[in-house]
Amino acid sequence: MAKKRPQVALVYDFDGTLSPGNMQEFGFIQATGKTKEEFWEKNRKFAEGKDANGILTYMYLMLDEAKKNNISLTRESFQKFGKDVELFRGVKQWFSLVNEYGNSIGLDVKHYINSS
User: Fold this and answer.
1) How high is the pLDDT of residue 17?
2) Burial of 42 by CB count in 10 Å (0-12 exposed, 13-18 middle, 19+ buried)?
3) Closest to 85 measured CA to CA, from 34, 28, 36
4) How far is CA 98 from its chain centroid?
5) What SS3 state is found at 27?
């Protein structure tokens, strides 16, 4: 029986780590008719006014804006918005390079994105 290779998990945040902005800024916000500055200012005021966490309020605002603007929140619509997400230079090559290196030293590398 072949010996199982050790596994290592690399966990990434998305916004500001793999992308220079927030993923909502590359299609979704524009679909609501707002600029990213307008959306985030509305979120900031909403969060402060409710003494709430800004991450939870922006998710609420996304749902609210989607409903107001008849934007479908399906897997397909998220894929459509996601096709225009900008990534930092080198991100597309990063995963294969790390996998190649891991393989060269006997590791099975797993990549995960943990983001709200």
Assistant:
1) 93
2) middle
3) 28
4) 20
5) coil
pLDDT band at residue 10 using 50, 70 and 90 as cut-offs? very high
Q: What's 89's DSSP letter?
A: T
- Tell me if residue 55 falls in helix, strand or coil: helix
Where does the pLDDT of residue 33 fall: very low under 50, low under 70, confident under 90, or very high at 90 and above?
very high
The token pair at 26 is 């590359």
Domain residue ranges in the chain: 1-21+86-116, 22-85
Report the alpha-carbon distance of residue 87 to residue 4 in Å, rounded.
34
Task: Yes or no: say if 24 and 115 are a contact pair by the CB < 8 Å rule.
Answer: no
Grade residue 76 by pLDDT with cuts at 50, 70 and 90: very high
CA–CA separation, 5 and 28 (whole Å): 41
Angle at Cα 95 formed by Cα 93 and Cα 101, nearest 5°?
100
N- to C-terminal Cα separation, the chain: 41
Structure token digits, residue 48: 């402060």
Q: Say if CB 28 and CB 22 are below 8 A apart.
A: no
